[in-house]
Amino acid sequence: MKYLKVTTFLIAAALASPVAAQEAGGRLDIVVQPEPPGLMLGLVQNGPTQLVAGDIYESLLRYDSDLNPMPSLAKSWEISDDGLTYTFKLNEGVKWHDGEDFTADDVVFSADVFLRETHARLRASLAYVKSITAPDPMTVVFKLKEPFGPFINAFENGTMPIVPKHIYEGTDFANNPANATPIGTGPFKFKEWVKGSHIHLVKNEDYYVDGLPYLDEVFYRVIPDAAARAVAFETGEVDVLPGGSVENWDIPRLAEMDGVCVTEKGWEFLAPLAWMWLNNREGPTANEKFRQAVMYAMDREFMRDVVWNGFGKVATGPIASSTNFYSDDVTIYDHNPDKAKELLAEMGYDGEPVRILPLPYGETWQRWAEAVRQNLSEVGINAEIDSSDVAGWNEKTSQWDYDMAFTYLYQYGDPALGVSRNYTADRIKKGSPWNNVEGYENLALDEKWAAAATMVTPEEREAAYAEIQKEIVDDVPVAWMQELTFPTIYRCNVNDLVTTAIGINDGPRNAWIKK
Amino acid sequence: MTIFAVVVSRLSKAILTLLAIAILNFFLIHAAPGDPAVVLAGEAGAADEQMIEQLRERFGLDQPLYVQLGKYVAGIVQLDLGYSFRQGAPVAELIADRLPATLLLTLTAFVVSLVLGIAFGVAAAARVGKPSDTVLTTMALLFYATPLYWLALMAVLVFSVWFGWLPGFGYETVGANYTGLERVLDIGSHLILPALTLGLFFTAVYMRMARASMLEVSQLDFVKTAKAKGLSDAVIRRRHILRNAILPVVTLAGLQAGQLVGGAVLTETVFAWPGIGRLMFESLAARDYNTILGVFLVSAAMVILFNIVTDIVYRIVDPRIGARS
């Protein structure tokens, strides 16, 4: 049996420790935007919910910024040589916030019953799982039907949050009154939620890691206007602006303030990658040459530098560079208007207009669409912007009523978890904007995606994904734009805030304030 | 007709009007593009068909529109505004949670703007053509024309960021746990900037209306008669001109009062004021049908209610109206 038992925990903890000893106490005010729809992480996993509930709930593992697993509710784990059996040993003495003991039964219930019903993304991974059992109260065993390399990345908090069996078993999960007062095992307990104003969490005095957490309380502040959020940070009302809280052009100004730190770390697991869906079914975008022309027409470096104020990295293909198995051995689409014009002439583009649908997430996205339109018009593509609100964007993309549409998606550390879902033909389904919306069909490549997901050794997978990336980048099913970076802005006296691959989502666990 | 009879007659009509409004709103919101189940599923960052179907089923969105309408109307007849898809709570509870903050903000702005607007309007009319009138009307024009959003941000910049005199946003100091007088003062200090920002616009509206109306009435024959009787200017202004001139202001105030419960979306957004305006805006973005319909219905009810109140105030201010009918 191959042991991946992690002994790096102590080393990692030592490395993360500053020279000075951590100081206990204090309060942290963090912006949360928009206000989460709920805090029950097993039911809702959007960004704001994960930000707040990531302190209340826990999962079996955490991940460092290189995506190596670290202990959380599980203190150690083993994967069998055939890649089919995952055995987790749980931490002892863990209690739910209501005082009940946490056991392996909670894990089995969460993964096999609760999340199978409620969690669409995890369901895709659980399809590979044959059984989940608890041979003793401190051991959980996942047996797989076939090897599934990325499975080790499925134990992150937003992917597999562990929920209390004693509260949810046999109930209507979505309507359980306990959802309003979430009970987890995490370092902070839910205290109060004043809708439209703030969410108040307090230190879990019985947390099973000695000395943690350091902070006494955390307030998540709801401030709906981006300019007002910047002001709140300037006036000292809040200490932390999580990525995306303020418009990009405000970041340099805030970063220059005394005692303010900025970090781009903490997004390695989610690795948001932005692209434009190009409708592969009809119109000019159905032509591969047109799609390649779009790639050559765009000055994506300019867009990164101006629209995103220099934050982010121009994408080379479907896999972000921080995700496992990334390869840059692909055709590079630099800014080459002449090449774009050549391709358009070859295909015989007749000036048919194309609509660009921006993502309705604020001014930056609107400007991004305008920059694209400008670049396209420079090579003779007749493009117009077709704006909409969030619900309208969902409708248009899920009903395939667009030519080019902006989006971005998380990658969750592995191409089999967060990438292939956007490109395989079995994921072409009307009515949902979280699948192969562009309508790209390449059955030979589909087989390669499927094979790469179930290869046992990382070396095999690396070679398979390199081949896939090379091929798909030539097809340009979508226009890959940029690996997004959402810098976290915080006061420098807050230490150890971003120490893992999900950054501030589990940041308060280790954070401490230097007085 | 006595005031009581007027109220009874109006209320009975109001119930039918409200029902018609509810049905109209229902069709309007369902005609807007966008599917609440897809928006909600999207908040999970990933969704499959099974999840979207589950959501549709849970919220009854898989049923024909007329069945959904029937259920909705049956609910509101029993004063049940339904359940919020997005927030997982009864709509009535969500509205009730936000109502105190909204009423505090809008009522303060309303009272301040009404009192100041009428006072400045009367003062300007009394000094028509003089420099003080010019100053007042110019100020009114300025506040009337300035976008509320910009004014709000400038107020925060000047009074919170530069001078640090007043809190720039929020309803009260979070985590301070004040009680009694301390809490009242704390909320009061948070209220000043949003209430003034919202109030300035309406002060300008009332002032211009009061001034124009005062000038118009002062040209009428009965004012000349009063002057001929030898009454002083102050008495004529207060007892004869103002009493007649105030009617259009009352009409306008009645209309505005009806919208108080709808909140003030922009002011509430900039100042992070936890009111109904924001609830409506966020629910609209998420196509949270029941919440939007609930807010619309309560707002409509308030408009109707304040129209009735305005009618009654009319009769008190101007007894001729009651006499005519």
UniProtKB/TrEMBL annotation, chain B:
One of its GO terms (biological process) is transmembrane transport. The keyword Membrane applies. The keyword Repeat does not apply. It comes from Thalassospira tepidiphila MCCC 1A03514. It comes from the Bacteria. Belongs to the binding-protein-dependent transport system permease family. Its main location: membrane. It is a multi-pass membrane protein. One of its GO terms (cellular component) is plasma membrane. It is found in: Cell membrane. This is ABC transporter permease. The chain crosses the membrane at residues 103-129, 141-167, 187-207, 246-272, 292-314. Keywords: Cell membrane, Membrane, Transmembrane, Transmembrane helix, Transport. CDD domains: TM_PBP2. Residues 99-314 form the ABC transmembrane type-1 domain. SUPFAM superfamilies: MetI-like.
